[in-house]
C-alpha cells in the first residue's frame, strides 16, 4: 500500500487503490463433472474470503475461485444483487466490506415467455366461430325430417335445410380438402362448383351437430364437450373426418372411442367402422380388446351380427388368437383311474425325480 500511495498520491489515488474484503459463498454443492466420474469440490454454504481492488474486474475473481477449488470457470455463475459479469467491479456494483457474493452452477437461460397461451388462442378462435359478420362459406345440411326419397327440387327448399356458415380462409388454411375444393379455375381448367358458390352440400348421413363439432375442431383444434358425445355420433364424426381428410380430427375421435367408449357391446360396431373409415389405430385397439375379452365378446349377439356384414374382418382376429397359442404341439400323458399313464407306463415313482412327476426344475439358473 505504501508504494501505491507514493505513486498515486492525493485523495483520488487512495480511492483508486482501495481494497474491499468480502465473502464468496456456495449456494449449493459444487461438483466437477467428468466423462467417468463426478466429484464434489465445494459443500453448500461454504464461505471463501476474498480481497480485491475496488476497480479490479470480477473476471479475475471468477478465474481464481474456480482454479483454487478445482472447478471449471464456465460451469459457475456469481450473484450479488444481480448476476455478475466479467467486466463488473466491486466499485461498479457497490460491493462493501463484509458483503457476500453467491456462487452456484450455471443455469441454462430461461426460454422467452410465450406471446399468448393456448387458452387465449382457443377463446379468440371460438369467438371467431360464433361471429358470422365475415363468413363467406355455407354448409347446407339436410334436416333430419328430410326424406331420402324427396325430389331434388323439394330438397332445396329452405325449410328442409340448415345453413351453417364459416370462413373460407380458415377452412382452406386448416385442410387440404377445402383448399382444393375452393381453388379457382386456372388456364381454362374447370373449377369445382363450390369454388364459385362457396357452398358445400352435406350428405344426409351427417347432421348439423356433426358439422358444428367438425368446425369447432378446425377453428380451435379441440372439441370442448367431446366427452358428452355419444358413440354413434363419434363414429359419424370419424366418417366425416375420413371423407374430408381431417387427419387430426380422425386421430382425436379414435383416441376418444378407445379410451372412453370401447366395451363388450360397442366393440363390434367400432371394429366394423374401421373398415369403412380406414381407422387403423381404432382397428388395432379393437382387436386387442377382443383378445383380452374373447369369451365375453364372442358370446355377445351384437358381435355375431356385425361380423356377418364384415366376414373378412374375422381373419385378423383369428390371426391374433393364433399368436396366443404356443408354437408346436404340447403332448401330455394323461393319468388313468388305475394309477397308470395313458402310455401304459406305471406312475409309481422309482426315484426323487419320478416323485415330482417330471424332470426337476432348478431353483435358480446355474
TrEMBL record:
Residues 153-227 form the BTB domain. Coiled coil: none annotated. InterPro entries: BTB/POZ_dom, SKP1/BTB/POZ_sf. This is BTB domain-containing protein. It comes from the Eukaryota. Residues 339-351 have a biased composition (Polar residues). PANTHER family: SPECKLE-TYPE POZ PROTEIN. Residues 329-366 are annotated as: Disordered. SMART domains: BTB.
